[in-house]
Amino acid sequence: MIPTKFEYAKPSSLDEAFALLAEHGPDAKLLAGGHSLIPMMKLRLAEPEMLIDLAGIPGLTGITVRDGRVSIGAMTKHATLAASEELRQHAPVLFEAANALGDPQVRNRGTIGGALANGDPGCDYAAVMLALDATFTVAGKGGTREEAASSFMVGMFETTLSPEEVLVGVSFAAAPASAYVKYAHPASGYPLVGAAVVLSMNGDAISEARVGVTGVGDHAFRAGSVEKALAGVRPSDRTALEGACAGSAAGVDVRSEPAAGAGYRSAMCDVYVSRAVLAATRG
Amino acid sequence: MPQIEIDVNGAHHSVPVEPRLLLVHLLRDKLELTGTHVGCDTSSCGACTVLLNGESVKSCTMFAVQADGSAVITIEGIGASDALHPMQEAFWKMHGLQCGYCTPGMIVSAVDLLRRNPDPSDDEIRAGIEGNLCRCTGYENIIRAVRSAAAALRNDESRHSVAELLPVGGSN
Predict the structure, then answer these.
(1) Would you call B123 an interface residue with chain A, using a CB distance cutoff of 8 Å?
(2) Would you call A108 and B43 a contact, using CB atoms and an 8 Å cutoff?
(3) In chain A, what are the domain boundaries?
(4) Where is A50: in which H helix or E strand?
(5) Could you name the CATH architecture of A63-173?
(6) Check whether domain A7-52 has CATH 2.40.100.20, yes or no
(7) Of the candidates B2, B130, B170, which has its C-beta nearest A103's C-beta?
(8) CB contact under 8 A, A34 and B66
(9) pTM for the whole thing?
C-alpha cells in the first residue's frame, strides 16, 4: 500500500519545525516513530502534504529522575521505557504499559509522545498518564505551556494539541506503588480494557488511589467513583476490593465491538481495575 | 528527490528516494534484496523485519528516507546459502518452517532476541517473536529452532557469532 505523495522535512530544531508548521498549516503532519501515522498514511486515512520528521531534533529523548519527579522526552521509544530499570523502580505502571504494548519491532520505533499525541482510544499510556496525574509539556512558537494529562485528552483521536504545537515531554511524581494491567485484544494487542492504578498506602489499607482506564470509552478516563470507594479499603479483603471497583465504567459511553460488547467490556473493566489495584500493592 | 546514504549488509548505497518509498520497497525493488518479504503490509506480521542500526524493525512501517545515515541488515546479510547462520541452520534442522514466507522476518527477530538475551526461556522466545506471525507451523518448531540456535551460538562464539553482525542498538 502506497501513501499519497508528500514532501519530507527533517528539521534540526524546534524553531525550524514551528516554521514548517506555520508555513504548511493543516497540510503538515508531525512524524515521531510513525507506528500509527505511517499505517494510516498507507491506508490513505491520513494524506499529509508535508511530513515533518522530529527525529533530527536534539533533546527530545530520555528519562530523567530528579527530586522524586520523572521526566520523559516525547521521542523516547517504547523499547527504552520497557527496558528502564529506573522506570521499573519509580513508575512500574509506565514500565509495565511500555512492555505490554505492540511487539518488539513496534517498541523499537514507536514513541511515547507520538502515541499520546495521536489520541487513540486504545492508547495504553493514556490510562497511565491519568493515573500518574502527569503534566504534558507542549511547545509552540510563542513558548512552552504545561497541561494536565486529564485535560489534554478530549475525544477519539482528539487532544488539545493545536496544529502548530509539538508535545515535547511528560512528567509526573514517582509512583512506586503502581501497576498497569491489560486485557489485550487477541489479534491486535490493543487493550479491550487497560487499567492503570497508582496507590498511596497507609499500612495495609489504601489511603488514596488514582485509577486510569483506556480502551473502554472514546478516550481514557479517571474512574472517579472507584477512586473514592477505594480509600480505606484493604486490598487483601477481596470482597471490599471488588465492591469498590464495581461500576468503574459507570457514566462512560462504553465501546462495543465483536471481540467485546459494551456489557462484557464494562464487567471486564471492574475486573481489570481490581487486578491492577492488587498488582500495585505488591511493591 | 532526497538522496539518502544507507549501508545495507555492509555495502554502502547512495540512492535517490521518493519520500513515500517504504524501506521494504527500497530493499526489494531498488536494491533487489528480495529476501525481505511483504506479508500483511499493515505492521502486524513481521515478514518484513530487518535490523536497523542493530534493532529489529518492520520495514513496511518506515520510509526509506527515515533510514538515511543508517545501517540495515537483511536476511541476506545474516547468512548465505553456502554459509548459513546458525539460526538458519536451526530453522532447517528443527523444521521451523513450512511455506517459508515468514522465515526471513522470523530469523531476523530471533537473531535480535539472542543478541539481547543469549539464553532465553521458551516464554522469552515467544515474547521475542511476538511481532512475527506464522500461519503454518503452530510456532512449536520455531521455538525449538530458536532454542537450538541459542545453544549452538553459546557454544560457538567464533565463526557465526551474532555479535559480529552489528553492535546491539538501544540508543534512542
Answers:
(1) no
(2) no
(3) 7-52, 63-173, 178-280
(4) strand A50-53
(5) 2-Layer Sandwich (3.30)
(6) no
(7) B130
(8) yes
(9) 0.95
